[in-house]
Protein: DUF4446 domain-containing protein
Organism: Alicyclobacillus ferrooxydans
Amino acid sequence: MKLSSETMILWLIVLSAIAILNFVLFLVSSAQKSKMRRQFKRWQGIHQTADLEAVYAQTIDKVREAEESLANVAANVRAMETALRTKIGTPSIKRYNAFSDTGSDLSFSIALLDDTQTGVVLSSIYGREESRTYGKPVVEGQSTYPLTSEESEVVSLSKHKVPKQLV
């Protein structure tokens, strides 16, 4: 069987096209292989064995640890908020002149109350001959002892100084 020169040229063109196509495919596969090697090295940076299941398991463990830590922090914040409500807030004070024969506002009443308006009112009455100090317990803004107008005023002022609840 004898092939004509035209058939040989046609075969040569077809084989050349196949060779060029193979070369292009070789370049594309080399580029993909290089890309995959870079990705593999990145994964090895996360975990030396590059075992995706191990990386996933470690990630889940770290998330659980973070959730537990966050729950502990939230519990501590709630405990601190509860404790803070029972601490004395900003004191309220009123200075006044208890007696008309004294020269200035040397008497005072001070309210030391927490967020629930529970605590104590201290009053110091200054006179020329003597001074007296009184303490009266206060529970939820009320005292079992009669409050003077100045003491009632500092309790009332203390109510307005109560900080807003933390959200």
Residues 5-46 form the longest helix (42 residues). The first strand starts at residue 92 and ends at 96.
